């Protein structure tokens, strides 16, 4: 059997004096949506930053396996990881507010030298109509939901094989959250694999194939999304915000 | 006081402001991307002037060769300073970089004194630059006219760079949010090096124009224009390129009008006036003319 697209093997990560990931192992298969769940501070964002090369593991391996070729991401610089096909849509959107919407999309394609960047930008405008109407305006003037659309479009501009999404529903109105999750499902439908970090466990487990639950930097639970959703230990890991309490989780901004 | 006299003063202010703008815009560009108050910026200007001196007077080569050499020397020197002095402490607190830049400044000045002596040398541009011409009733030298025109051309090229090129947009993105820029595949160190190279080249060209006005050069000549450009950048709102240009012209015009319109015995207070103006503007507009609300990045 071919190796998974992404493999984390016994990864230890430290941020300054504190250990944020402890022997974290996980896999993401090509074409999957994998949810990475857990309470605040459990290590979800640190996991994504380690995959992107902004945090470095002290121990363990991070392997991206593309078309039979293994890349050790822990040894690659962040720009080479992007070039290899990993896009990261960071927590809090982090769009470039002083740049225009169009320029934000250009930045997403920063490393591409092929002639199809303009065509992809047009495709993004079709996928996210809001962006077409506001292409010339400063991205900082967009609403929260629109900024989220821009952040996802910007990440897709690098033509990723693997998309890392960090808390896409954070701070959005419930209706916008629905839209964002529809878009995530659509992105996977177009062939991009998704590793999804979410506080909103209920929604995430609805669209994910599999899930991992982190607690204090360790993988506490893993398995098919439906099993995780039914697992009573989810509630413990989430301090009461398990799938049974999903409507509450959605209401929390 | 005639209208002609005032026009003459305005022209002088425009010329001085152009030189300030060239230095300030590079200073602000570097601040924008690494949050570094780079006090060695004025000394890059000095090295640029000496490079022009070497090519024109020592090697006796034509002016265009001197300009090419000056651009290259300024860009390379600024990149080397970044690589050797600032890059190793990129994640250190802001004040470390500031103190390092003071050290680099003192080092460059003392190297200059050591290798070239502190004695001022005459700096002569070709004669045709010193001829007088009339522009709209005001008298100016060709060098002054060239200074204004060259500044406009350089600033337009700079706008084209930061708005229209891949690296320019990447630099603006990195200045705004370095972490997100890295996640987009932007090589931070390369974007920063580009900002240093651009700022260094502009400072070096400004050094030639400054030396051409003064008619002489010495290793400590970078101090005053460096300081004035810092004031210009702060007046404009440090980090904002348009603000730095505006601050440069405001400062140049104010300085010349102060000297030109008040009785001659006040001339000696020109620098006191400049810094007084800075304080006044910052009292009314704490972020400068075009600066956004102050943000300190951790």
Structure commentary:
The complex is a heterodimer of chains A (253) and B (298). Chain A is α/β, with parallel strands linked by helices and 253 residues long. In chain A, 37% of the residues lie in helices and 27% in strands. Chain A has a six-stranded mixed β-sheet with strand order 6-7-8-3-9-10, sandwiched between helices. In chain A, strands 2-1-4-5 form a four-stranded antiparallel β-sheet, with helices on one face. In chain A, α3 (101-108) packs parallel to α6 (144-156). With 298 residues, chain B is mainly alpha-helical. Chain B has one domain. Helices cover 72% and strands 4% of the residues of chain B. Chain B contains eleven helices and four strands; from the N terminus they run ααααβββααααβααα. A two-stranded antiparallel sheet of chain B has the order 1-4. A two-stranded antiparallel sheet of chain B has the order 2-3. In chain B, a hairpin with a 2-residue loop joins β2 (132-135) and β3. In chain B, α2 runs parallel beside α4 (94-116) and α5 packs antiparallel against α8 (188-214). Chain B is globular. At the A-B interface, α2 and α3 of A face α6 and α7 of B.
